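fyi for ur records
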Amino acid sequence: MDAQQYLGQFEFQSVVAPARVAYLISPQSNTGFRRAVAESCTRWGGKTEPIVPVHPKGRVDQFSLQVLIFSGIDSLVNIDADPTCVELLSSKLDLPHTNLVDIDRYGPGQFTCNPSAIATITGMNLATFAAPSLDLWTVAGAGTFTPEMIADKRANPGLFRQSNDAYEIFRGQLSRTNAVDVTCEQFGEFLIVPPPTSRSTVIWVCSRRQFLDCVNFWNYRAIQLLNFDRGNAVLLCDYKLHFWAGLDQQIRWLLENRPDEFDPDVILFSLSTPKARLQEIATTWRLMPSDKPVRSTHSTTPPRARQAPFSFQTDVDPRNQLIYQRRDGIETRFQVQSWQGPVKLHFPSPVNFQTPGRTKLGIGSNFFNRLPKRPSIAELVIRPSKWNGHLVEIFVNAQNEYRINLSMPLMSEVVQTLARDAAESFALSDKGKLAESIARRFNFPELMRPGVIEAIQSLTTKRSSYRYESRDERRILKPAQLENIAESVKASTAENLVAHEFAERGLRINCLDCGISSFISFGDSANSAVCPGCYRPQKYELEDGSIATFYRLNSLIDRASDQGALLHLLVVAALQMEDKDCEIRPGVNFVFADGSCRETDLFGAFRGSVVSGEAKLNPKAFEERQIKRDLELSFKLGVDIHVMACFGKISESSADLAASIAEKRQVELLILDLKSLRE
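which gave:
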């Protein structure tokens, strides 16, 4: 491998984010909920860490399951749930788990830092947290700490102050100055799909039976967007409202001057408070009921601001509105001159760390687009690591400058690694060896030019038996004898074969003495024709009174064409037209753990995915049994894309059958027919 091969200038992306966990508690466990909130307030990103009640057999409710899937957590932490149920849930989600006592010592969850490392609150602007003795809703709204945390100053007195005033905690939700808000400083999303839109403000109301509302509100807020905020959500308790003077003014302040991109202004929601009570609350705030359809949009031009009277609805569940594909963290981008092999990255952290800690670091590059997102391929870039979307992710100490050594692997190395992952052993098939020999010597993308493959097929010498190598004499033809090519381009097509060394031009001697017909290349010809067999003087074959020109394939091309290996290269060329960075082996034998041996015509990396497939000259070869066998092999190899290629028109019934099987196997089907295999 040439480690110094220059690749060019690539854009790199670094993303710094805390490792985040989900806390698992017993159903209806107020104590477990309080302890989970307290722990989250000691962690960067803690506001976005879900708290999930776990039921028998590892079951969780539907909303909690959605939160666990979409929140992008790295680990599960057991607070007071049944350990057996935690094991089952961990297995279902394919996430590691640990106990609370080990959260800072084992597993991915340890790679975060205290909010003091990233917070900017100082002086008189201390964040408030709910005193441990306050109601559960204040704990969910503001965050809290255990008495032990307060005593040993893990509730950093330079950042936080304790509050015993529920109304102050509610106002802190409006201004986002509570302890849970501090945990998300210098944190947010760098990618959201689909793009976020403006949303109604959610006012979540709980009754004296607070647990279910508090857990669901916490998780609803945990998956709210941070950097791309288009709404707000606050929690309050209905039996406290009549004590709070000026609450209606606080609500109006929350709603004023928001863009007119949504309806209604407010969604009042509760899992424990009757809708009649919610409507009564809204009336005291001078909100107007609305029967308009719920609307959430994003204007391309500046919209007008919404003004009073503000509207509300009570029959909308806001939990159905926050499902995004998202990537969390703070990013920076930089350019790097890159060589094949080791590359040294030196870049500033996009997060300003003020004290020591640990973190996740994601590294991305447009170079990585060509790499299949498999664990073994991430390890080729840097060890130990894993893929997180398009990023290679590692765990590191929090620093304000990073120096990272990684590798830009050769695509041949990538394919070798993928093949090792797929089976016990592998090797190029006979056709694969032929095709690779041609690929090293010839400009094989020329095979895609119209008429080239047809001319080669006309000139191919047909073998009658590979076992004993019996064959006909090498075939030689005049341009006029080439089949399936327009008369007007037969001569130019034959010359094109010569220009690319696929064939040679020459003369023919039909010996009248020994009866042997011989091909004499132009380079070996002499003024006087002599039979190379018996060495007797003869004459060159004539056509219309002039010496006739004949063409004969290069022996390697001749052999490869007869065995079908050229079609493999034709498919590789077609794939390279779509993805110039792909790497495909044109024929591989795999030996699996059960001792079975199977051959695939194509295997490699294409469009950042693993690909394999079958190539046939005759579309009739794709009958039902063959299609099922081919897709079974691709599934066994664990590929993402199955190629079905033919130098002809694949029937609609064959294509439909393949598509049906591929869909069931969750494999993408790529059909390449005659049209696709042309330039």
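The first strand starts at residue 6 and ends at 17. thats all i got for now
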